[in-house]
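idk why but the lab printer keeps eating my pages so im just putting this in chat instead. protein + pyridoxal-5'-phosphate:
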Amino acid sequence: MSTTITTPVCQRLETFFDGGRCFALSKGRVGLYVGLLAMNPPAGSKVIMPGYSCVVVPSAIKYAGLNPLYLDINPHTYNIDPELLTQTDSKDVSAIIAQHTYGIPCLTNGIMEWARERSVSIVEDCCHAFGSTIGRKQCGTFGHFAFMSGQWNKPFSTGLGGMLLVNDTRLADKIRRIIDNRAIPSSLPRELLLQCQILLFEALVSPRTAGKITKLYRFLNKCGLVIGSSSNTELSGAMPKDYVRAMARCQVRKGLRELARVAENIAHRKKLTAFYHQRLPDIGFATLKDNLAAEQPLLRYPVRVSNKVEVVTLAEKRGFEVGTWFESPLHPRETSLSDFGYTVGMCPEAEKACREVVNLPTHLKVDEQTAERTLAFLAEIGRPV
Ligand SMILES: *Cc1c(COP(=O)(O)O)cnc(C)c1O
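predcted complex ->
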């Protein structure tokens, strides 16, 4: 049953990506989990991923009976450093997660070739990259499958939710069977609560209020009063029993509304990315080095400062939307890294980025004036590294 409810949004996504099979789920991480299960790699084998991500990525890997292997990022692209990859022993590696961080395309500079030569499966983490391209080809269409997040602050929001794009028909059939067997349908109370959250989010969240509302939302989630991104069980490393869910009806409706303006969304993000890219040097901050990156519809534009805590605290107080991703190699800061096999010092560049990077919003609620004011705030308070 779960798959028929989600058909409209899946069909639209398949059109957007010009092929592949799409599945709509409760979260992006659930897509990663069912995709890994369907690939059926040897139990306990390794999945390479950047040590600069969300904790829900290694948790999905572990739930699938596999082990994360963290690689450091290149400090300019925020993606897996291809140099380090060439030095990595591929023994026991079954898959690599190519995460297009901030929307900056990964998979250039030999990562695809490295994986193909060693029969390592490629999974794309497209949670930040909706509409990013390499050549004319969409990110999400290069690997065996790609997962996307529909969370509030992701490029294509379904008010939580997640999507899976599968570029291999046999794998897609297996994924369909897993979802049909395991996905829990949404109950009426869950639908109603999600619908309320979607409406409140649309009405209340603006660049001015984003910081304060995020704080309140996290607090309410801890108390169990809202449907949040991660439950308390999950953050401690245990798999919640209702982990695999299909997308709820209200999320499908929200997804269709978002898809109706996807071209506008992508054009807007491209415009603001170019705007920040052009203006940051005027106020003394370094831009992305990669020219390809500056042409993408980035989810957020990363900027390095030497006083991140001060910038973030004052931004929230004064009502500027300045993001903190990522605060930890396995975001959020509260993650107990050792529970996920990460030891401090494993990925020094990623750890440095966590201390230095703040990011600027590009979404549709940010107009050029707001972006201008955010830059003025950054010029006043931020200290370039
Ligand atoms: C948000 C995010 C995820 C997880 O998405 P959910 O929909 O919350 O499961 C995974 N990877 C990255 C890079 C993300 O930013």
